[in-house]
């Protein structure tokens, strides 16, 4: 299964969501899933190159909320390439994009730590979560 994680930062100093995506991604990859992470980090941030999962850094984002103008266009172009899109982190820009992503037919499942919306999912996806 092709799985995309959306995350505000891959800087391990951020703690919780970053560490969760890293550990889940490593374990999912070991089970044979294709894992990719999109972050709102600047591509030249020093921790971006060190992140061990496939990563697309779309930033730099602006402010604590993490406004990142490149995120929605990237998702419109690429979300359909993934079976599952997991949105990590609360009260940040990538979480607000979840509703727009679910409103399209380009993804089957989007999740955050507080909600999960399923749209057009197949039994194959439901049984693998």
Any chance you could write out the topology, listing elements then pairs?
Layout: E1 2-7, H1 16-30, E2 34-39, H2 46-50, E3 54-57, H3 71-78, E4 84-87, H4 93-102, E5 109-111, E6 116-118, H5 123-128
Parallel strand pairs: 1-2, 1-4, 2-3, 4-5
Antiparallel strand pairs: 5-6
Description:
- There is one protein chain.
- This protein is an alpha/beta fold and 129 residues long.
- It has one domain (2-128): Rossmann fold (3-Layer(aba) Sandwich), CATH 3.40.50.
- Helices cover 34% and strands 20% of the residues.
- It is built from five helices and six strands.
- The chain has helices at residues 16-30, 46-50, 71-78, 93-102, 123-128, and strands spanning 2-7, 34-39, 54-57, 84-87, 109-111, 116-118.
- Strands 3-2-1-4-5-6 form a six-stranded mixed beta sheet, sandwiched between helices.
- Helix 2 (46-50) links the parallel strand 2 (34-39) and strand 3.
- The N and C termini lie close together (11 Å).
Q: What's the quick description here?
A:
By secondary structure, this protein is of the alpha/beta class. 34% of the residues lie in helices and 20% in strands. Strands 3-2-1-4-5-6 form a six-stranded mixed beta sheet, with helices on both faces.
